[in-house]
Amino acid sequence: MRFELYSEAPLELSCDLVALCAFEGKLQDVRLFQELDRALSGQLSAVAAEEAFSGKDEQRLCVHTHGQLKAKRVLLVGLGPREGFDVTDTRRYGARVADESRRRGAKRVGVALPPLDPSANERAAQFLVEGTLLGEYRFERYRAEAERTKSSLEQLDVLAPNGCDALSLARGQVIADGVRLARDLVNEPPAALTPRKLADAARELARDKDLECKVLTPKECEKLGMGLFLAVAQGSAEEGRFIHLTYRPKGREQPKRRIVLVGKGVTFDSGGLSLKPTASMLDMKTDMAGAAAVLGAISVLPALGLQSEVHVLVAAAENMVSGRAYRLGDVYRGMSGISVEIANTDAEGRLTLADALSYGLTLKPDEIIDIATLTGACAVALGPHIAGVMGNDNAAIERYLGAARRVGEELWQLPLPARLAEQLKSEVADLKNIGERFGGALTAGLFLKRFVNSTSWIHVDIAGPASAEKGKDHVPRGGTGFGVLSLVEYLAARDRS
Ligand code: BES
Ligand code: MN
Ligand code: ZN
User: pLDDT tens, 124-149?
Assistant: First the structure.
């Protein structure tokens, strides 16, 4: 699909469909609505009144123009009350326009920006493009050709009579591609995305985007002392892989900052010997969504020309049951030298992350961020749409929350109460890998905290929002790519400070 800016008079656009939106009860305030209505001799407002279209959220109205206009159809999209609307909701609008275009078989579509202050135009245009591409996303490569959703959209003209930078459209496309990459990785069946395949995907990405890529085999990880990561990986017939991608800003001797991103990359989590029941195991191909998010994020950085050096680390493993699987009561030592007693093999993510964090510290970063589908407890606490954020640096957490808010990903800060760390004490080792049931997201965070020392660190638990059971608007069913948007916005904002 092509995206173009259309800065002529909107009525001049020849297209299959022209879309505009309105806040609830404010249809008549939209100038383009008035222009179209006039050109249609008042039929648009007459139909809107008959069909009780008032701009309520979810309302849509499509009217044929029967040759009275250069546009074949006019689509009205309701955005709900003005007060409740955030510019990031422009993605919903874009997704609904794409959906309606597909239903109507529209190829060329003109879309008006939401009636916001013109200072919001650039972001609105970016989010509009993102919403269209993300709403059209489907994972259908394993379905019969005839069953696949066909998009008809060929060109989308963003109507911006008072000007808009074409870069905003390009930015939207690049970022949507990053999210779509993350979704693809999450949605692949676990047999198709083993740790080795994930490493292949990282290599391919590195080739495409001119990133550095290093992949360590279990032998090489053993030399580095990654006993915790390897303990998780050893039960599977599929070997683990440690993935290290690097983005370096071009033409700059000293990068602005060095930031390490760690993603949890458990390609399938059976629970190990602490085996999960079927219902809990069903969606555990999603357990590499953190890895998908950091890969999606780094894929965007070259196009943005980021001035910081960014490392992406993934300790990719499959948590399985076998005669070689790690046991309860076993003690392993990771790269940090800290020994861990295994009290539950289903608390595997923190073990893989611990070694990735230790490896990350050797890069001497200014900041380290990990993102992981770490605990069911976090999803219980915050529900299916909101991620938890913890860390040892409140200023960094505030920055992250700010970035997430600007791009419309929902996060909520959770505490890391020192008292709960008592629960991680072991009789036989330095640490135990689980605490008690209540506060499970926090003890997981406290476990990780032991491995980061004094480096500024943020931990994002995406167990809830990593995948969607039911799709809506720009977030179809399945892997959501959650995290890519916030990470990219965080890194870009870090560059500017
Ligand atoms: N991958 C799971 C967490 C998870 C649960 C992600 C639901 C997405 C949806 C993680 O490895 C896990 O199994 N955590 C355990 C921790 C427990 C054993 C302390 C959990 O949440 O039950
Ligand atoms: Mn687990
Ligand atoms: Zn897991």
Answer: 999 999 999 999 999 999 999 999 99
Residue with token string 């999803």: 379
Residue nearest to atom 5 of ligand 1 (CA): 376
Q: Which of 318, 345, 374 has the most ligand 1 atoms within 8 A of CB, as the residue to mutate?
A: 374
Tokens of 210: 């001119």
Alpha-carbon separation of residue 454 from 41, 228, 362, 365 (angstroms): 69, 21, 13, 11
Residue 447, classed as helix, strand or coil, is helix
Every domain of the chain and the residues it spans:
2-162, 174-496
Q: Any bridge partners for residue 390, and if so which? A: 459
293 C-alpha to ligand 2 centroid (Å): 19
Q: Per CATH, which fold does 2-162 belong to?
A: Leucine Aminopeptidase, subunit E; domain 1 (3.40.220)
Q: For this structure, is 248 an active site residue?
A: no
Name the token pair of 108. 């060329």
The class level of CATH for 174-496 reads alpha beta
pTM strictly above 0.70: yes
- Per DSSP (E only), the strands in 299-346 are 309-319, 331-333, 339-341
